[in-house]
Amino acid sequence: MTPPPQAHALDERLLPAPVPGGHVLDNPVWAALSGPHARFAVTAAGGTAPRAAHYPADVAPFAAVADPADPRSWEDLAALAGPGAVTGVSGALTVPEGWETVASIPGVQLVDTSLRAEADPEAVRLGPADVPEILELIALARPGPFLPRTVELGTYLGIRREGRLVAMAGERLRPPGWTEISAVCTHPEHRGGGLATRLVRAVAAGIRDRGDVPFLHTTEANASAIRLYESLGFTLRRRTSFTAVRVPQ
Q1: Is residue 177 pLDDT above 50, yes or no?
Q2: Interacting residues of 11 by C-beta distance below 8 A, sequence separation 6+
Q3: Least packed by Cβ within 10 Å: which of 36, 203, 228, 230?
């Protein structure tokens, strides 16, 4: 068994260079869409330097602005989404006058500081052909949003029992230098056997192999998940919120 890495402080030596408006993990959707996930970025027509972007509707339900303090970023998002549209926004603590906050769920962001990452011999790579079965598991386990093309965002691994997919985890957002672990879930009939832990470690091993640092999000109310992730070697970096806003009419 590979020994756990030596724990290290969550300081600037761990963090990549900051971006305008803060650190890349303060606005991870924008950092991903303007970086490693640029091929997925949908932006408003016209202009050579968009200040807002979102993922395709069948990939992920996330939008972001380049600088939440810049009114031009919100103008770009309004042009992109359309009058009266509701969209999820990452990295914004407040919204401009005229915008409506439709929902805001308190969440937490945790980063790997002492996780033992290791491959799992039972884990199998999941792809587009597995999406119907993935969506069935997501509907039962409810780990968060997962859409027909979410599997294209990165590596997704699963564990099967008698041919049936019973647990999975994978990669979602990819800000420069970081990769988010997401869709961690286990079929209700197979919980308690450590499958989620094994898959988190296996996904993290692939992330580490390419030089990125794993991180993840969960709701603030999900105390059991937070305890699990902290026991595995994740550290709370910041409190955040999952926010949906309505574009002014």
Answers
A1: yes
A2: none
A3: 230
